[in-house]
Amino acid sequence: MNLKNKNVLITGISGFVGSYLTESLLELGANVTGFDRKYEDTNGNNNLNVFKGDLLDINSLNNALDQDIDFIFHLAAQPFIPRSFEKPKETHEINGLGTLNLLETVVSKDLGCKVIFASSSDEYGLVFSSKKQYLDAKKKYGNIFPEPTSFPELPISEENPLRPMSPYAVSKVYGDFLMRNYYHAYGLDTVVSRSFSHEGPGRGSMFVTSVITEQIDKFRKGIIDSISIGNVNAFRDWSHVKDIIDGYILLAEKGISGEVYNQGSMRTNSILTYILLSLESVGYEIDRIETINNDKIIKNPTELDNNELFGVKFEKTKVDNLILTNKLNFNLDDKGIIVFTNSEKIKILFDKTRFRPADVPILLSNNEKISKLGFKVNYSIDCIIKDQLNFLK
Q1: Averaged over 322-344, what is the pLDDT?
Q2: Domains of the chain (ranges plus CATH)?
Q3: Which of 240, 235, 254 minimizes the C-alpha distance to 202?
């Protein structure tokens, strides 16, 4: 896309994604304006200007949008799911009311810009890979709404039902629907990206991939003697942040007004696999894993296969396949996992405090819609892990 001399505003510019997006847009020759609660020095870059402001402060929004703008990338949010359980009102105000304020300001100034909204795959929430998983969830939560009509509900397309499982996810549903409401009601050029998990160098230390890689970095340096984690059975569709950035820019160019697009890698891997592959990335050769209790033993747990599952061929580990086919499950009674490597035994301990009140068991994107616009996945899960670990050296 030719963004040279285009005027772009990024909310949440100092965040993890905002910094990568800024770099890419500047390389493309765009004039970038940032809007953020944290003011950062622009280092004399004439194509970059940052407004210090808050989505809840209409005056600061008016100041930032008092200019010609071609595109707005709305990234600003309270993104941390555990914090959303602790501070649901704060999460709703920033993610919900803040988004409403932004749209109202665009309408009041009669701006003809295109708004790309960074929503989240967490909107889908409780997605069922099998009838057994559905029955287990029904036993745990009671009523499920909307009820599934078939199994599996994977891979997740834009038409999948929304069953948000956290205040953060609910706030993103609100922002998602606001975008489309303002498209229908006021003719705003809005596009929603439901981005699946995106990782890379500089990912916030509170997010699970950084929790994993930072602990492994400390372990190999002898600072800690075990790894602490929550639910290792959870599966996520992990992308490199640079792939997601390419998708945002593609949606600015080709995304259809009023539409929703998934952005993901179209693969899913467990948190346990992320730990094991991270250990291998720093030089440990893994022979087998065993639970501390209950004698669950898996030899060659990181052995890879690319067999079809849920109608999709994607790279996964042996342990992934066992969990996904309901042949293996880890729980608090297991206490943890011992990883047997070429040099030592490594303990992965299950920490009850790291488990969420309500969790999403699996996310696997169907990215066919955005792929038709030209989107491509360039990074493997191994590349993501290596980039995160190298960042810590």
Answers
A1: 96
A2: 1-125+162-195 (3.40.50.720), 127-153+201-237+267-363+379-393 (3.90.25.10)
A3: 240
